[in-house]
Amino acid sequence: MRLTNTTTYFKLFAASIGLATLISCGTDDTNYETPITETDEEAFERNEAEILAYIEANELEATRTDSGLYYVIETEGTGETPSSSANVTVTYKGYFLNDSVFDQAVNPIEFNLANVIAGFREGISLMKEGGTATLLMPAKLAYGASGAGPIPPNTALVFDIELIATE
Fold first, then answer.
1. For the chain, how big is the Rg over CA atoms in Å?
2. How far apart are CA 91 and CA 103, in angstroms?
3. Strands 101-112, 70-75: pairing kind
4. Among 20, 46, 93, 117, which is least packed by CB within 10 angstroms?
């Protein structure tokens, strides 16, 4: 008789553990929602404010295009102005708004403007051969919400460019 009571108690104990386990599975407090990221419009507005602050802090006389690109022609240049699909030869330095350099081509580099970021294509198309310019671009004209390599998502960028040749 004692064995029967022990077996009954064991069955009740096992059932209680099983029930407690099932009940606890339904009370998961973990938040699995994806964090809300900055929208493209919010990033553009933030980039615009950051670029304007940079322009003011560095006392630049920049011109804004309809796309949101700011540019300063440092040296006018005397040659041709490239089309948006031209092959160009340039030197450049790319940096963040805190002046930290992320890329540069000290030696001339050649590429087709159709194969580069929109801000580069638009900005270089405003220059003449032999000219130098500073381009300040919001993320939407650079690497956008994805970023690239050392460039975080939604980051405004600055480029100092010398346009050496255009074909």
1. 29
2. 11
3. unpaired
4. 20
- Answer for the pair 147, 124: CB distance below 8 angstroms, yes or no: no
Residue 64 CB partners (closer than 8 Å, separation 6+): 70
For residue 118, which of 160, 63, 157 has the smallest C-alpha distance? Answer: 157
**Are the C-beta atoms of 35 and 144 separated by less than 8 Å?**
no
pLDDT for 24 equals 46
Rounded to whole angstroms, how far apart are CA atoms 69 and 63?
8
Rounded to whole angstroms, what are the CA distances from 139 to 6, 21, 54, 156? 71, 49, 15, 5
CATH code of the domain covering residue 78: 3.10.50.40
Number of structural domains in the chain:
1
| pLDDT score, position 133 | 99
**CA pair distance 113, 88, nearest whole angstrom:** 7
Instruction: Say if 56 falls within a structural domain.
Output: no
Considering the chain, what is the average pLDDT of its residues?
86
Tell me the one-letter amino acid at 39. T
pLDDT at position 9 is 54
Residues facing residue 83 across a β-bridge = none
Residue 32 above 70 pLDDT?
A: no
